[in-house]
Design goal:
It is built from 3 helices and 2 strands; from the N terminus they run H-H-E-E-H. It has about 120 residues and is of the alpha+beta class. The protein has a two-stranded antiparallel ribbon.
Length: about 120
């Protein structure tokens, strides 16, 4: 088995294990079509990688079932290309509704990113 294939399988296993920070029962990924608009800004991260990361993070953020709880995730590359901003949102009835859920998601994502930051697969 090649080293690349082994690293890929190991990375996949780690991602699955990391998802346990968020929930035990996975939900299927929903694909959205994309319309790529021309842009003058140069990005370090290819759009396909950014989209894939966004899909993974949205999947991980889905910790509850029901139409009243639908998380949204946005990934935005910094202008310098050295950082990514992850923006989380959920639908709310009132201004403070769901704040505890957002704080829990934020803390869970921070744990995941700390682990990935120390990973050999960087």
């Amino acid at each position: 088995m090649s080293q690349i294939n082994l690293n890929f399988r190991t990375a996949c296993a780690e991602y699955i294990a990391l998802s346990s920070f968020f929930h035990q029962v996975p939900a299927p990924v929903v694909r959205n079509t994309n319309n790529i608009l021309p842009t003058s800004q140069k990005y370090v991260l290819p759009f396909s990688k950014e989209r894939g990361l966004t899909e993974i993070l949205a999947f991980m953020a889905k910790t509850k079932d029901g139409r009243e709880y639908i998380p949204a995730v946005c990934v935005r590359e910094s202008q310098s290309g050295t950082a990514l901003d992850i923006i989380l949102a959920i639908n709310k009835t009132t201004y403070t509704d769901g704040d505890d859920i957002l704080q829990n998601l934020k803390a869970s994502f921070e744990q995941v990113f700390q682990i990935l930051n120390k990973s050999d697969y960087g």
